[in-house]
Specification:
It is a single chain. The protein is α/β, with parallel strands linked by helices. The chain starts with a strand and ends with a strand. The structure holds guanosine-5'-diphosphate.
């Protein structure tokens, strides 16, 4: 089963580790997830979903297992990384491996925590910090594109028409990056996107900016993040911004759940920052959730939006994908209305779908596969 992961990046001292440790403190017990990576830099977190809870009530089983996403702490970015500064290229390679990026930007002011980035001491400068990091990612992409362009142009000259088409796409991406836009700003057809997937471009990955604010800045009436959002619209229209106070999140974790909820309510926060970050990550990855009801567990799983039934089967077990015959399915909302599997069967509401069926968010699936 391939894992979907979100890499946490940002300049030093912006709060990445604090965010990561808070996330891993809410991490799932790994015994339910034999595929989990055992790595101190990887935290596997549950995706909150009320439907699983409800499903567990209607179809009681020993266990309820939520869907998960992974967060990866990618330390080591400094200005000049694309030229090999700091951990340089190794750092950039680590980002290539993730599916989406959570870019932490420092908003909090704290003279005891040095700002690292542009050599300028003083007040937080989130826009400038963001530019430093995004520039490194863009430079790394430009270098990868230049190398690939060299090869494909040579192939194109020897009459390879596919290579000529790829070279055309690469050239457009180069111009886009040269103009200061991330590669995702260039509109590519599905075919074109597929043709350059091998490059794993960093600025093609979906991004959320995590604005790490202080507790005072978190108050709803003080929005220090608005200007940042506005400025970002021009540079990165698809980007998502999530506001979080990393230090507060870390402190909240030392409280028991009841105290935590009370404290959060007193601060006027409906939902913890970590939960918002997990949800945003989930949307960023364009995932759909489907459910399975087994003898021992009800479970939520993730697939990319648009995935067909055999791919969903493969998330559960590669044998199910290989031997896929059909999927029996009912949507969660209908199942909830009917109230039990037996009734749903009696009413003939469980449909049989074949290999071309596109899984919907909220489908309950039973796979039939050849052994
Ligand atoms: P990283 O280098 O990006 O991983 O940053 P860290 O998470 O190690 O944080 C650097 C320093 O900033 C630590 O001393 C943190 O305690 C501090 N820090 C992180 N978040 C906040 C915050 O929201 N407010 C304040 N005042 N300090 C913070």
């Amino acid at each position: 089963m391939s894992r979907l992961s979100i890499g946490i990046v940002g300049l030093p001292n912006v709060g990445k580790s604090t965010v990561f440790h808070a996330l891993t403190a809410v991490a799932v017990p790994t015994e339910n997830y034999p595929f989990c990576t055992i790595d101190p830099n990887v935290g596997t977190v549950e995706v909150p979903d009320d439907r699983l809870q409800r499903l567990g009530e209607l179809a009681p089983r020993e266990r309820r297992v939520p869907a998960v996403v992974e967060f990866v702490d990618i330390a080591g970015l400094v200005e000049g990384a694309s030229r090999g500064e700091g951990l340089g290229n190794q750092f950039l390679e680590n980002i290539r491996g993730v599916d989406a990026i959570a870019h932490v930007v420092r908003f909090f002011e704290d003279p005891s925590v040095a700002r690292v980035g542009d050599g300028v001491v003083g007040a937080a400068n989130p826009m400038r910090d963001r530019e430093v990091v995004d520039l490194e990612l863009a430079l790394a992409d430009l270098e990868a594109i230049a190398r690939a362009l060299d090869r494909t142009v040579r192939k194109a000259r020897s009459g390879d028409t596919d290579a000529a088409a790829v070279a055309g796409v690469l050239d457009r991406l180069r111009q886009c990056l040269d103009a200061g836009q991330p590669a995702c700003a260039e509109e590519l057809s599905t075919e074109e996107a597929r043709s350059i997937r091998f490059l794993n471009l960093l600025t093609l990955k979906p991004v959320m900016y995590v604005a790490n604010v202080s507790e005072e800045q978190l108050a709803p009436q003080v929005s220090v993040v608005e200007d940042f959002r506005t400025a970002l619209q021009a540079a990165h229209p698809q980007a998502v911004v999530v506001e979080i106070c990393a230090r507060l999140e870390a402190d909240l974790l030392t409280l028991d759940p009841v105290e935590r909820a009370e404290y959060q309510a007193a601060l006027g926060l409906a939902e913890g920052g970590l939960i918002r970050m997990i949800r945003a990550g989930y949307h960023l990855l364009e995932l759909h959730t489907f459910f399975t009801i087994g003898d021992e567990e009800v479970r939520a799983w993730t697939v990319r939006a648009g995935a067909r039934a055999p791919e969903a089967a493969g998330r559960v077990h590669s044998d199910f994908q290989r031997g896929f015959i059909r999927a029996e399915t009912i949507h969660f909302s209908e199942f909830e209305r009917i109230g039990s599997l037996r009734q749903a069967r009696e009413l003939g509401r469980i449909r049989s779908e074949g290999k071309d069926y596109v899984v919907r968010d909220g489908d309950i699936l039973f796979f039939r596969a050849a052994g």
